[in-house]
Amino acid sequence: MTRPNIVFVLTDDHAAHALSCYGSAVTTTPQLDRLAAGGLRFTNAFCTNALCTPSRASILTGAYSHRNGVYTLDDNLDNRQTTFPRLLQQAGYQTAIVGKWHLGHGERHDPAGFDYWNVLPDQGEYVDPELIELGTRTRRTGYVTDLVTDIALDWLDRRDPDRPFLLMLHHKAPHSPWVPADRHRDLFADRPVPVPSTYDDDHAGRAEAARVAKIRVDTHLSAEELKAPVPAGLTWPEERLWKYQRFIADYLRCVAAVDECVGRVLDRLDDAGLADDTIVVYTSDQGFFLGDHGWFDKRFMYEESLRMPLLVRYPRALPAGETRDAMVLNVDFAPTLLDYAGVVRPPGLQGRSIRPVCERGDVDGWRDAFYYRYWEHLSAISVCAHYGVRTGRYKLIHYYGEGLGTTGSSDVSMAPEWELFDLQEDPLELANVYADPRYDDVRTDLTRLLYELKAEVGDDR
Prior knowledge:
Layout: E1 5-11, H1 30-37, E2 40-42, E3 45-46, H2 52-61, H3 65-68, H4 84-90, E4 94-100, E5 116-120, E6 130-133, E7 136-139, H5 144-158, E8 165-170, H6 208-212, H7 217-220, H8 223-226, H9 236-271, E9 278-284, H10 303-306, E10 307-308, E11 310-313, E12 322-324, E13 328-329, H11 333-341, H12 355-360, E14 369-374, E15 386-391, E16 394-399, E17 417-422, H13 440-456
Parallel strand pairs: 1-8, 1-9, 2-12, 3-13, 4-5, 4-8
Antiparallel strand pairs: 2-11, 3-10, 5-6, 6-7, 9-11, 14-15, 15-16, 16-17
């Protein structure tokens, strides 16, 4: 079989429950639905550290944070490490990355393994952004989601048609401060966005870590994010709902631009006759709280933050319109794409190729649990460092309460705490059953499994 082309589209903070193909109650995403209808939709895709920079490093290296050295937002990726784009480049692929990099800049941190790169510095700007093209900084006029798509499609048109390619298109959106394109500024103006059922969650019975986190929609959104002063005369319940609508409408407006630009990419592949032989992947670096539990942001091991959207289309080899329920992790992306490209898997990758899952669905011996760790302890957002294990039914989380010297973490300690959730009986994670005697055996088994998986991935801190 001809080696496939690869288009890898990565967004920032796009929650799975903000795609209509995942049953979103708050928006529609017709172009992403089109991609899902032409390929596979994964219902259990998860990140291993729900934070932008660490997740991006894990996607590139196929390794957990403690292996690739990117623990927190303040860490940079050492670009001498083995990454799947570098291996594809060495195997004859032409490679490009356009958009958000967020892994550091300079000789040791700029994108490596790419024939062409044109990336946003740091977080990047939504309007008239500065970009770094092969080391040279320029400023472009326009809206960032449109611009990076323009640049990516221009590279696609200029590529060598006789060689396979990897194109990584990394959007800034829908990351804070959620600045929409002018064409979408009135989207949702005629109707309120539904409020999540857990918006009034008071976190009773949960760990203290949930109560001290500075990610409440009603309290911690900045003036830049709200973009308008709170109207005078509102009661507190009215103010809480006003802030939610300000946040969620702009977030979803940013998603609308991403959706349109995914459609542009799919159209270009169709027009160029490339669609059948191109793997298209759509995912995000992690999930996001959309008012769930009263929160915005991510970081926690709760489902809305932990879960990633994952759509994969490859008409030449994969069925259309099917779902896959197997547990898939962001560290699996690198070995999977190397597998499809016929590149030998190097040592050091910690993920598994999901090619058998893509092609056959159920696979004997596939993982039924995974290890997660968030390292950035009590930074500006005040989320406590924690690790945990998730199985098909249960989730055990340990807030160990120490920064351990990781970059950007606080040296303030918190008392260690535990949470246990029965996802079958409590899918919204409202009831911590860690101290419930009915779950004694479950707690014992999960604690053992947690430390087995921690050791298995080589995390000894």
